[in-house]
Amino acid sequence: MSELKCLLVEDDAQTAALALSVARDNAIELEWCATGHEGLARAAAERFDVILLDRMLPDLDGLAVVARLRDAGIATPVLMLSALGRADNRIEGLDAGVDDYLAKPYEPGELVARIRALHRRAGEVQHSAVILYGDLECHVKARTAHRQGRHIPLSPKEFTLFKYLIDNAGEVVTREMLLRHVWNLDFDPQTNVIDVNVGRLRRKLEDGFDTPVLETVWGTGYRLRAG
Amino acid sequence: MPVEAAPPARSLFARLALLIALVAAIAVAALWAVTDWAVRAESRTTLLRVIDTDIAGLADIYAAGGRDELEARLADRLALAPLAGDPPHYLLADASGRALAGDIASWPALAAEASEAGTMTVADATEGRAALARATQLGPDTKLVVAREFASRDAMLGQIATAFLVAGTLVVLAAILAGLAFARRARRRLDRVNAAYRAIAAGAIDARVDDPGGRDEIGELARHTNAMLERVGALVAAHSDMSNHLAHEIRTPLLHLDGRLLRAIEGCERDDLRDLLGAARQDIRAIVRMLDSLLDISASTARRGDSSGLVALDLSALVAETCDLFADSADELGIAFSCDLAPGIAFDGDRMQLIRMLSNLLDNAFKYTPPGGAVAVALAPGPVIAVEDDGPGVPPAMRGAIFDRFERGAFGASSNNGHGLGLSLALAIARRHGLDLSCEDSDRGARFVVRPESAGA
Questions:
Q1: Count of structural domains within chain A
Q2: Considering only residues 140 to 159 of chain A, which have any Cβ-Cβ distance to chain B shorter than 8 Å?
Q3: Alpha helices of chain A — where are they, by DSSP H?
């Protein structure tokens, strides 16, 4: 796994320590600075894959930092880490130009998954009609799925789920990411809708084949693996 | 009370301008009436003087020349009567009223012995005309009536009428024009005040009345409006700031605590302790969720009646989508789940909030419905959304209280997170959309109904 280089702008040392330890465990190189101005200077001086930005900084509001970054032409994806975790706060952040928004306290796995997803999204510009991954095929226009050349009939929701998983193939996607991108919800309705749909998709993708492709990452989410 | 989205169709000022014009028209008419009355009174006096002079002359003739002489002179006068001025008419009669000379056909209702004066009608070949007359007793068997038509008075009254009509028309027109000009100006200034309120209703919290204008009442209103909007804006900002800081200040120590628990879990060998620590982390998440729900309730309550940010959406599709989220849970729990949704119901709302409101109601219904029971959702035009379950129901005395746990401070006791705050939040979201949420009678379990606020409970 190629090492990611990220910047953390966070004024609270304990919070930063947690993020740094999570990054270390997941082979992510994370530089830390404690103020908004320092963060801006670092972001301008060096290339980072993803910037992790606290929202309430003592010297400069996190939203203002994003605005200044974008004004300066720095397009590095920004993941806002914030103690303000309500839907309203998230919308404010996304409106301000933040690429993703994660409320504290977060699960370590969630943080890593979000960082990797942001980095992947920034890197990929391909809009090919067919996405290939291992023995899986996703026909985007026709909205069909194939494995080993065999057509797998999917419901519209299952296809959207499959498309999101294959877009993030090889990486963990969390419940929250699925709720947001597949179900278009910014809160957890506390139902088993995800488990049921993932289970159904898994059966369709795996029944009659030798190797599993959709694994559950305990406590974090799901991952599509090359079959 | 919703603020009107567009300028009102009826303008107070246009009506004011019309009222001013009406008052001007009435004033001109009254002035005309007074003038008319004064002219009539004055011309009667003048005419009576002319008649009395005439009578005095004729009495002299009668005294000097007798009745025959008077008859001759009356005939002369009638023959030589001038065309201009007020044409005279005479009647010389004996005591019984029989005509002896003159052009008046019969004796009028005037008493000669009292020298009575009054109006009468003089008949001509074609028409009768009004005239002023005086009767007088010349001798024991001779009495005389001298009458004069109101010709010059009528001519003058006609001229006065014409003058007032022309002047009155001009005055009323001028009043209308001046009134409309004033109304336009005043309306434009008031419109600026109303425009500020409309902009705020549409979500522009920074809107102010630009150019409040002079030191008159409208200027004062505009300045008061700006000062008030300034205060409201500051309060809204303070509220949001307070919420954010509260969230931040409470979450940060929880975050530290969570980090420590996480490290403890990593370094812990005993499974039972790990489970305990994991449960503690779940509790932290529950506290955070509760905090967020409280702030969401407060934010939704603060935006009650504020229609900004609401977009037209297909409520039928939205309800169907939300029901889909619960269909699998229903299967798993062995609960019959039915949706009876009227198609194509349009509604202005915030999609995510409405889904959340419905989710909370459905979550509540499923929580209280035993396996083998049923949950039913119905959407009817209105819109009216009903969520009904097979649970134990809510006793009528409790139906108000289940929505305001927050106010009763009992949320600490109901740490099952979903119930109390879930319904409170659903109610706050409903009200933010101009809807009401109530718990109604049902022959099954609980029945929660969302319907427009104005339609009553």
A1: 2
A2: 157
A3: 13-25, 36-45, 62-71, 87-95, 108-123, 156-167, 175-181, 193-206
- Whether B244 sits inside 8 A of A196 (CB atoms) is no
Interface residue A24 vs chain B (CB under 8 A): no
Look up the ipTM and state it: 0.83
Q: For tokens 């019984």, what's the residue?
A: B96
Q: Of A56, A105, A185, which has the smallest distance from its Cβ to B284's Cβ?
A: A105
State residue B106's pLDDT score: 85
pLDDT score, position A107: 85
Domain limits at A175?
130-224
- pLDDT tens for residues B325-356? 999 888 888 999 999 999 999 999 999 999 99
Q: Which of B202, B200, B203 is nearest to B229 (CA)?
A: B200
Do A134 and A107 sit in the same domain of this protein?
no
| Residue-wise pLDDT tens digits, B146-190 | 999 888 888 889 999 999 999 989 998 998 888 888 888 888 888
Across the range B363-379, mean pLDDT stands at 91
Same domain, A68 and A24: yes
Could you tell me which of A51, A79, A53, A75 has the C-alpha nearest to residue A64? Answer: A53
Same domain, A111 and A172: no
Considering only CB atoms, A83 lies closest to which of B248, B326, B363, namely: B248
The domain that holds A73 is classified in CATH as: 3.40.50.2300
Beta carbons of A104 and B284 less than 8 Å apart: no
Domain at B311-455: CATH architecture: 2-Layer Sandwich (3.30)
Q: Among partner residues A15, A84, A87, which is closest to B255 by beta-carbon distance?
A: A15
Architecture of domain B15-156: 2-Layer Sandwich (3.30)
Query: Can you give the CATH number for the domain in which A146 is found?
Result: 1.10.10.10
- Interface residue A199 vs chain B (CB under 8 A): no
Are A46 and A152 members of one domain?
no
Q: Are B252 and A186 within 8 A, CB to CB? A: no
Distance in angstroms (rounded) separating the CA atoms of residues B370 and B389: 9
The amino acid at B350 = D
Q: Do B325 and A14 touch (CB under 8 A)?
A: no
pLDDT at B9 over 60: yes
State pLDDT tens for residues A121-140.
777 656 678 888 989 999 98
CB neighbourhood size of A57 (10 A) = 21
